């Protein structure tokens, strides 16, 4: 079976590494024939420091589905168009917003060093920080720390002026993730596995919803207070506690099934 894992808040709880007990089970699942895929909001560059050093070569989905790595080869699946990027920059300037903009490898950023997302930004110093105007082919934009009174207006402006974008509104965190239209973790899974893929998914946030909805079985790690009432009525989706023991319990069940 194909097993797809979000990273932060799902199997990584400190922003730095996947828990050792979880890693041990993932390696065992790989060894008995399961295909492991990591799918993250992080770009590939920022996924690398989190991955276990002894983990076999696996497929990676980064930037909420805008970029992948297969057989150690990185491929951009879609970029934000020049016209849409100009609209995004106009909104940034109008509201004086914090942001992180990623291209295939480099980035532009205007955000406090104390921000949790900034702390995960290029920790191995693999890339170069650029001016936002020097980013030519953006794959993902995060608008950060949006003032509460402007959040709905900004989301509405982007939806109206740039309808060829995919927006994930994290209203609980006052952030908006932006990628090209029809780009998300599920479309990247389809690119890797083919149309109508069969997989089991683990996630914890709005950017995991599409991936979870389309999974044969999905596990939602509810550690952000994300409103997910539809999960409660879906027989294929299960809400689990946000801790290592809960994740390991599910992985042990998968290992037991593999041994039968």
From TrEMBL:
SUPFAM superfamilies assigned: HAD-like
Pfam families with a match to the protein in the record: Hydrolase_3
GO cellular component, one term: cytosol
Superkingdom classification of source: Bacteria
Xref: InterPro entries: HAD-like_sf, HAD-SF_hydro_IIB, HAD_sf
The protein's name: HAD family phosphatase
Single GO molecular function: phosphatase activity
């Amino acid at each position: 079976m194909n097993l797809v894992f979000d990273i932060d808040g799902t199997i990584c709880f400190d922003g730095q590494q996947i828990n050792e007990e979880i890693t041990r089970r993932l390696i065992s699942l790989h060894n008995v024939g399961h295909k492991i895929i990591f799918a993250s909001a992080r770009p590939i560059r920022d996924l690398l420091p989190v991955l276990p050093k002894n983990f076999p070569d696996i497929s990676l989905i980064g930037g909420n589905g805008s970029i992948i790595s297969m057989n150690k080869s990185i491929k951009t699946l879609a970029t934000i168009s020049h016209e849409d990027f100009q609209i995004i920059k106009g909104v940034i300037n109008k509201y004086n917003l914090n942001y992180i903009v990623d291209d295939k490898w480099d980035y532009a950023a205007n955000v406090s060093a104390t921000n949790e997302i900034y702390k995960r930004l290029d920790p191995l110093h693999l890339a170069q920080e650029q001016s936002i105007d020097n980013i030519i082919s953006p794959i993902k934009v995060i608008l950060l720390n949006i003032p509460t009174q402007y959040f709905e207006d900004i989301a509405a402006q982007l939806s109206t002026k740039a309808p060829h974008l995919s927006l994930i509104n994290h209203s609980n965190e006052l952030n908006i993730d932006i990628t090209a239209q029809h780009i998300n973790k599920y479309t990247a899974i389809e690119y890797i596995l083919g149309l109508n893929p069969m997989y089991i998914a683990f996630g914890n946030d709005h950017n995991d919803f599409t991936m979870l909805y389309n999974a044969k079985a999905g596990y939602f790690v509810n550690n952000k207070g994300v409103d997910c009432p539809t999960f409660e009525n879906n027989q294929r989706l299960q809400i689990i506690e946000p801790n290592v023991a809960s994740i390991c319990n599910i992985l042990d069940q998968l290992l037991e099934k593999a041994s039968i």
